């Protein structure tokens, strides 16, 4: 009698090529060429072998029964060591594509993918198409993919929109919290740096209007010198936005909280540091970790909610 692992692997292989709603996937599956992007309408997927590995383990160990934050921690550890790769979402200047790339992650796609995979498992999803559904819902304003301006480019906007959608709740009552007054505007101040905006200048005023809305909101953050006091309140799976004072930016880096057996809150991220261009977990507590730049001012936190 075949083992449970072999059975699950054969079950997953049965959707080695999926086509639904303009989506297709085969990379990493049998007969696929490794490293090849697969385009299907508005979706691009890479890393079928990674998807299969995580899904098999999650199914065998019934991770879907865990609280979503704990589940995110399990998935995040499975992604540990993934190479850091920037700009994986920028596949075309002419149209916006939803991209899920499990072979290379940056700081945003790391937490987005981890969250999306966890939400998929909690809902009983088992296919790359199910993962795309969750990533699209969290990545785009109102959960709807449109043009380039529909993507939640600023992390504070991502937090606000996903709280409104019931995906996360902002941890706004932490001790030492202060009003975050940093204003956004970097994208429209540097349109030449974005090939989508060069290709379609009409997107610039659309994003400008969104920046104005973002700047009208109130967001709380924890200043750097008060981070230690909030560590006991943090849980595995909490999403971290590292705040900056750089002109036009709100949050310059993102990651996840992973608490160890002693309850110490560590910071896990996809790092672009030359010494470790990959997904890693920092050895010390988060209050001792976010100190690599004088431009960093503190952090804001969002806790994932159980999907309905």
Structural class: alpha+beta
Overall number of domains: 2
Q: Regions with pLDDT < 50 over 5+ consecutive residues?
A: 1-41
| Separate helix tally | 10
Strand segment tally: 13
Measured by DSSP, the beta-strand proportion falls in 15-25%
Predict the CATH topology of the largest domain. putative xylanase like fold
Query: What oligomeric state do the depicted chains represent?
Result: single chain
**Secondary-structure element order, as H and E?**
HEEEEHHEHHHEEHHHEHEEEEE
Radius of gyration (Å): 19 Å
Please write the CATH class name of the largest domain: Mainly Beta
- General form: globular
Mean pLDDT: 88
CATH homologous superfamily identity of the largest domain: putative xylanase like domain
Helix content: 25-40%
Q: Kindly, what is the distance between the CA atoms of the first and last residues, rounded to a whole number of angstroms?
A: 37 Å
User: What is the second-level CATH architecture of the largest domain?
Assistant: Roll
Q: Quick one: biggest sheet? A: 8 strands, antiparallel
Task: Write a structural description.
This protein is an alpha+beta fold. The chain folds into two domains: 4-143, Putative xylanase fold; 155-304, putative xylanase like fold (Roll), CATH 2.30.260.10. The protein is built from ten helices and 13 strands. The chain has helices at residues 4-13, 48-60, 68-78, 107-122, 128-139, 155-164, 186-189, 195-199, 203-215, 227-230, and strands at residues 18-20, 23-25, 38-40, 43-46, 98-101, 168-170, 178-180, 219-223, 239-244, 251-259, 265-270, 279-285, 296-304. Strands 6, 7, 8, 9, 10, 11, 12 and 13 form an eight-stranded antiparallel beta sheet that branches. It has a three-stranded mixed beta sheet with strand order 3-4-5, covered by helices on one side. The protein has a two-stranded antiparallel ribbon with strand order 1-2. The relative contact order is 0.14.
